[in-house]
Amino acid sequence: MKMRPHHLLCAQGYSGKGYNPEFTEYMDWATEKLRGESNTEIEIVFSTDDFCDNCSRKMGNDLCKDNEKVKRFDRKVVEYFGIEERRYIYQELVRQINARMTEEMMADICRGCSWYPISNCRKKIPGL
């Protein structure tokens, strides 16, 4: 599964809502797999990913209607947690992120996200 850096946070906070039915269906499947299976391998990419493929905001490869904003979300995750474009075990990576996450970091990363005020991100990411 390919994931852009900020989707490491979105997958944890996802609670069954989405942009369209296709997106929600994919997110239901992906988050169940990520949360329920140990040793799930992911590939971090600094571009559109498997989550983006079903999103109505995707306009093309590495292009979103909110491109500047999502690139900033990704950049912040990379800066705070040293994420590289490579393969990881999802559970290990989110455990490392969650151990270091603070409320200030989360607010900085997610500033401008329309889902942040109404999502479960702050409830589901340990330490917040």
Explained architecture:
48% of the residues lie in helices and 11% in strands. With 128 residues, the protein is mainly alpha-helical. The longest helix is centred in the first third of the chain and has 16 residues. Strand 3 and strand 4 form a beta hairpin. It is globular.
**Ends distance:** 27 Å
How many strands in all?
5
Mean pLDDT: 88
Write down the Rg.
13 Å
**Order of strands, widest sheet:** 1-2-5
Structural category: mainly alpha
- The secondary-structure element order is EHHEEEHEHHH
Shape: globular
User: What proportion of the residues form beta strands (DSSP E)?
Assistant: 5-15%
Unreliably modeled segments? none
Main β sheet profile:
3 strands, mixed
Approximate helicity band:
40-55%
- Tally of helical runs: 6
Write the layout of secondary structure elements.
Blueprint: E1 2-3, H1 7-13, H2 21-36, E2 41-44, E3 58-60, E4 63-64, H3 67-81, E5 87-89, H4 90-100, H5 103-110, H6 121-124
Parallel strand pairs: 1-2
Antiparallel strand pairs: 2-5, 3-4
